[in-house]
Amino acid sequence: MKTSINFKAAKSDSEIHNFRKKTFEYIRKDLTPKNEYWMEQKMADRLQKIETYCKEKSRRKLQKNAIPIREAVVVIKENTTMQDLHNLSKRLEGELKIRIFQITIHKDEGHYDKDTKEWKPNYHAHLVADWQDLQTGKTLKHQSFHYSKMQDITAECLGMERGKSNTGIRRLEAIEFKIKQKEEDLKALEERLNEMKTEIGSKKFEELIVKEPDFLGFQRVKTEKTIKNYEKIFKVYNTQLLKNKTELEAKTKQIEELNTKIESLRKEVRLLKNKSSILLTDEKTFAFEKKKYLDSVQNTLEKAIRFEKLNPNFKIETHKQMLAELTKIAKKISKENNIPSSAFKEIFSDPNKTAQFFTLMRFGDYEVRQQKEGKTQIKTDSKPEQQEESEKRRGFRR
């Protein structure tokens, strides 16, 4: 299955569509609960932040024609997770300076096949990005090879094939498809003609000829009545032929789609077997992949915490509440991303990482950065709130 990514200027009403803040006719409401959402910041707040930073950094206002916030629609698989998309975001930021601050996974869009009446889902994700260069304050400037690299990164992170951008190939494929269609139509017409010839030569069609005696008593063919009989029978045969043709095309189409899926699954199995054999035989590779995976889980957990903090009802006042909320968030992303509980146990076994999660939940990103630099410490004991407040005041008076 192929994927591609192409960023364009984000529309002002993107959040309404992406986060399903409004009902749309083209979505299946029964599938909407399968959608997934993540947000670090609202678009309006991000734009204000970008404009302020641009003025501070370059001492100039952001240009009117600048496009500081962009959005991409990415084709995904049915089993693509939010963790996969966070991994993609991390790669885009690390290699192309593109910072994703909103991700939505849509599984409620698609269409019904007009022939088979089967639901054809359109699995995709919306990625909204901050396009500001933090070094200059202006928008990022990418070359054509950067956009090519973007496609490679997307395909690699999502475990899919890279979409081709060669328009010449697409045109050739379209022409070949039209030729094939015409050949099929011709074949169907030939079959229909042969069938009609056979039927016309049979006794069945002789019965359609209407003969009546004339004034001399001779049997004469009544042309008008005979033509009407032939028209009726041709209409019946034509309807039946079209029906058979439609059914045959629908079945052929289903077979082709199944064969494509089978081949894609076989390819995935081969890759997984190859990767498994390498991991089992090479200790360094195993250690590297393990660390890479745990870092990915930690990144997903941190982003999930940031998203939860946007909820106005999110309140953490005690150590016990922090622990309960962290466990709840971990269980949620474990279920949505098929992450084993053993991965979280290993991450939480590191007291420094656990302390960072608690700091993020209570104070936000700034304190986490300070903590990583060794400038602050998080309390992990459960002191009474009045005692904590008293200690803060004493520290302030000093």
Question: From the coordinates shown, what is the CATH architecture of the largest domain?
Answer: 2-Layer Sandwich
Task: Name the CATH class of the largest domain.
Answer: Alpha Beta
Rg calc: 32 Å
Helix content: 55-70%
| Overall geometry | elongated
- Alpha-carbon distance between the two ends: 64 Å
- The average pLDDT value, as a whole number, equals 79
- CATH T-level topology of the largest domain: BirA Bifunctional Protein, domain 2
**Looking across the biggest beta sheet, what order are the strands in?**
2-4-8-5-3
Major sheet: size, sense and barrel closure?
Answer: 5 strands, antiparallel
Give the number of DSSP strands.
11
Low-pLDDT parts are 166-175, 378-398
